Amino acid sequence: MPLDTELGKKMLQLITSRYDDRHWRKQIEKTLSLPQTGVTDPVQQQIFVYLKHGLKAYKSRRADPDSWIIGGYATKEVINRAKFQPQLVGASLKQDDVAFLGTDPGADVTEAWWEEMLVQWFDVPEEEKLAEQENSQAENSDSSSTIKAKA
């Protein structure tokens, strides 16, 4: 199940407040490389996509993996633009929607919390897992019956 509103808020606070801490740069880069479908709240998803595009380093047209500009003036500029001009992030966003950006998420956000957040990002609810298993079993039984018919 993707991140709920509270986890999404902490994740965005982590990205926008600890970017100058060398210890957190790799984790922030890893988080930015994740798909935006891991964030359920539509407002937070817009903010995440804005940060993802705003912090992407210039790339040539080669098929290099994404890289990020984390730390320094450019990162601060992207975050301040989001905070003070929320309409750049999304047309319907208000100042209240982005007010939490740049504030530290608290002492409980540690590497262990970050690892748990990653698990939550990609976790699939049990109902979806069961439905996927049933679909794959049905497909496998169909293909095995056609193989037997051909033999």
Task: Describe this structure as you would to a colleague.
The protein is mainly alpha-helical and 151 residues long. The chain has 7 helices and no strands. It is 60% helix and 0% strand.
Rg, please?
Answer: 20 Å
SSE string, helix = H, strand = E?
HHHHHHH
Structural class, from secondary structure content?
mainly alpha
Rounded mean pLDDT is 83
Instruction: Tell me the domain tally.
Output: 1
Give the terminus-to-terminus CA distance.
Answer: 43 Å
Shape call: globular
Proportion of helical residues: 55-70%
Largest sheet: none
Count of DSSP strands: 0
| Alpha plus pi helix count | 7
Low-pLDDT residue intervals, each spanning 5 or more residues: none
Q: What proportion strand? A: under 5%
Describe this protein with a few key phrases.
151 residues, globular, single chain, 7 helices, mainly alpha
What's the short story on this structure?
With 151 residues, the protein is mostly helical. It has one domain. It is built from seven helices and no strands.
Strands, helices and their partners?
Layout: H1 5-17, H2 22-32, H3 42-54, H4 73-84, H5 95-98, H6 111-122, H7 126-150
Helix pairs in contact: 3-4
